[in-house]
Design brief:
alpha+beta, 4-stranded antiparallel β-sheet, 6 helices, 15 strands, PDZ_sf, transmembrane helix
């Protein structure tokens, strides 16, 4: 009987040992799959502390604890990004890329422009504000011009060859001298063909005079006209140096974009109305386009 109990106890002990080995194997298998990532994370998080701790050894090196040959200053090396030679800060328009253009009537003339930072690609019409740079004033086959900070900035498509870079003179419209014929007090008649021809290139038309904002009480109330070209569209409708243009066809001219849009909208019109200030006096001019 005692022998039977002894054998039973021995079997229970052996079973317990077998179960313990199986449990240990399972725990080891689980740890082998979780421990490396944990160690890596711990190692990566300890790097900054490790670099900071290195400064604590500076006195050992500076005092020459290991002899004069090892005496000096402890300098921590930090990785620096390589600086490409010849790279200069990008220009004001350096992050704009002209993808392509479509030319047609005023409402059918577009430019597809991409901004790299932050990345965005949009379609702009003539007169639209190009992101935060300025209005789009000219669209050609392989280039566009943006009025930014009072200066024209030219963008070329990637397909444009370097020989296209120098801006060739824009084709001048027909000479317009005395295009408006006065028929009464403040009323005029303008040749429709001459007006439309002058407005065919809105970018060129915007160079026929210089427009500077006229500000009153902190707000733009119009644009003061100067440097009027005798053969330009402004001279055609009788605008003179010193005039302050307030409205075109009852639309306020209170921004560069509105000025471009209003000027371009004159093409194809039968009547034009200009509200301006001349010699300090408000004046209204009306034009019949024939």
């Amino acid at each position: 009987m005692k022998k039977f109990y002894f054998i039973t106890a021995l079997l229970l002990i052996l079973n317990s040992l077998a179960l313990a080995r199986i449990a240990a194997a399972l725990v080891g298998y689980r740890l082998s799959h979780t421990l490396p990532s944990t160690v890596n994370r711990t190692h990566s998080t300890m790097k900054p502390a490790q670099s900071e701790a290195l400064s604590a050894y500076a006195p050992i090196v500076e005092k020459g604890l290991f002899g004069r040959a090892a005496q000096g200053k402890l300098t921590l090396l930090t990785a620096t990004a390589p600086v490409a030679k010849g790279n200069s800060p990008p220009s004001a328009q350096g992050d704009l890329v002209l993808v392509g253009t479509v030319r047609g009537s005023f409402r059918e003339t577009f430019a597809l422009i991409r901004r790299t930072t932050p990345p965005e690609e949009r379609v702009f019409r003539l007169g639209d504000q190009v992101f935060d740079r300025g209005p789009l004033v000219s669209v050609q086959k392989e280039s566009v011009e943006i009025l930014s900070g009072g200066k024209r900035v030219k963008l070329l498509t990637p397909q444009a060859t370097p020989s296209d870079s120098p801006a060739s003179p824009s084709p001048q419209g027909p000479a317009v001298t005395g295009g408006a014929t006065q028929t009464g007090s403040g009323t005029f008649v303008v040749d429709q063909r001459l007006l439309n021809a002058a407005l065919d290139n809105i970018g060129q038309a915007m160079t026929d005079a210089r427009l500077l904002p006229s500000v009153k009480d902190g707000k733009v109330e119009g644009f003061r006209v100067s440097e009027v070209k005798p053969s330009g569209v402004f001279a055609m409708v009788g605008i003179k140096n010193g005039d302050v243009l307030h409205k075109i066809n009852d639309l306020p001219v209170d921004s560069p974009e509105r000025a471009i849009q209003s000027l371009a909208s004159l093409k194809g019109q039968n009547r034009i109305k200009l509200d301006l200030v001349r010699d300090g006096q408000p004046t209204t001019f009306s034009y019949d386009i024939r």
